[in-house]
Amino acid sequence: MASDKSRERVAKKYGDMPDKWDDWHVRLPDPKDQLRVIELYHKSGSKSKSEFVRARLLGEHFKVITVDKSAVEYYREVHKIGVNYNQVVRFLHITERETTTQTLLQELIRLTKELTALQEKAVSLTIDYRERDDKCPTPL
Fold it and tell me: Which of 29, 76, 93, 96 is such that its CA lies 20 to 30 A from the CA of 58?
């Protein structure tokens, strides 16, 4: 049961409520139901389980968040490339040898152009795939 302070706070905010409505405990004996509820909770983006259950019981709308794992991996790789790029540029700035710096800088510029071309190709392939996927009928 809820503590006296909790009851007083609820009574002050909402008026006097019966004791039996202070706390709710729900059991889901079927493991399949438990897994389904846990999956829905994770997809909902709710801050807490009670917020999720409250929204479901009261019929409130909630959002479902889906994460494309391949996109996450792609952005992680792009981030790694950016970090390495920044490290090379910093190294070039602190290097005192002029000829070595110029050689490395020219190589960096060449590789940057290649990387840019590959990223543009990846973007165009993604657009082509999405356009093709939209034209295909969905399987039943």
Answer: 29
Q: Which tens digits make up the pLDDT trace of 57-114?
A: 888 776 666 667 777 777 888 888 888 888 888 887 787 777 777 888 888 888 888 8
Torsion of CA 107, 112, 113, 117, to 10 degrees: 140
The pTM is what? 0.39
Q: Where are the alpha helices (DSSP H) in the chain?
A: 4-14, 31-44, 49-57, 69-94, 98-135
Phi first, then psi: give them for residue 113, nearest 5 degrees. Answer: -65, -40
The rounded distance, in Å, linking the Cα atoms of 128 and 83 is 29
Residue identified by tokens 């959002």 is 63
Contacts (Cβ under 8 Å, ≥6 apart) of 63: 44, 45
Residue 95 confidence (pLDDT): 75
Tokens 């909630």 sit at which residue? 62
At CA 41, angle to CA 2 and CA 71, rounded to 5?
150
Residue 60 CA to residue 119 CA, distance in Å, equals 42
Other C-beta atoms within 10 Å of 89: how many? Answer: 12
